[in-house]
Specification:
The complex is a heterodimer of chains A (154) and B (167).
Chain A: H1 3-12, H2 14-21, H3 25-51, H4 61-89, H5 91-95, H6 98-117, H7 120-123, H8 131-150
Helix pairs in contact in A: 3-4, 3-8, 6-8
Chain B: H1 3-12, H2 14-21, H3 25-52, H4 61-89, H5 91-96, H6 98-119, H7 136-162
Helix pairs in contact in B: 2-4, 3-4, 3-7, 6-7
Pfam families (chain B): DUF6644
InterPro entries (chain B): DUF6644
Protein name (chain B): DUF6644 family protein
Amino acid sequence: MSIQTFGDWLYATPISTTFRETTWIIPTVQSLHILAIAVVVGSALVSELRLAGVLATDESPARVVRRYLPWIWSALVVLLASGMLLIVAEPARTLGNTVFWAKMALVLLAFLATLLLRRPLLRDEARPAAKTVAWLLLVVWIAVIFCGRFIAYT
Amino acid sequence: MTLQTTLQSIYDLPLSNAIRENANAFPVLESLHVLAITLVFGTILIVDLRLVGYASHRRSANRLITELLPFTWGAFVVAIITGSLLFASNAVAYAANTEFRLKLLAILAAGINMAIFHATTQRTIAQWDETAAPPFAARAAGVLSLVLWTLVIFLGRWIGFTLDVLF
């Protein structure tokens, strides 16, 4: 089954039709999606600026990361759930859209970088974190936001 | 000059016209607007939760506020600039939109709430800053701020679905 036929099938399902026809569902889910992005952005900003040596340098990196990493994980769960509802409601807008897939690739990259390079900081206080990675991660999250908005225009 | 002619002359500005004519201008401004709002909400969330009594990376609430507020303000300025440009591109329709008007009111209310906190509760912050639970006034300011900024985000998203004229 190709993505196109899957999208067509999804579009025709009763749940997809209900989501589209109930006027408040899509704006509400999109608003929750933006709130969750704000949680990721705020948490990533403070953590990554600490690791880049800009903010709260008198606190240990592990302490700062320990505070914000759980928020990033929770917000990502909300983003995944709300994002999937939006795909169900409007499959063609997302699944057939190059910008959407670029966004997914960037989210996966940010997720893996956080998992593999940030989580180990919790256990090892002395582990050095590359400043470049911290700046790059912030740039990736910003790119995710741009892609998200551009999905509506492509 | 009535409000309606003022709005029309904002719409007729060369800058407004340029935003309407250039296919990428509106989505780029919108993306910057969303980025700025997530920075405003993301940083204010950390401060508000601390005011409610939730621990942060700083033990001192006052220190947390002075550390994060410049980011909130910087992002807020970007949100105002990008928001004004989006408004200018379609001034008459935005001004007539109920959600847009309510959003401005919610931002105003959030600003007043913050001003009251800075002028009153924050002056006595030394009494509880690192040692005690925040007083009721601080917790109330934190909750109210979270409610109002959440409302701002919801109303903002709703504008996109209720705006009359889309060029």
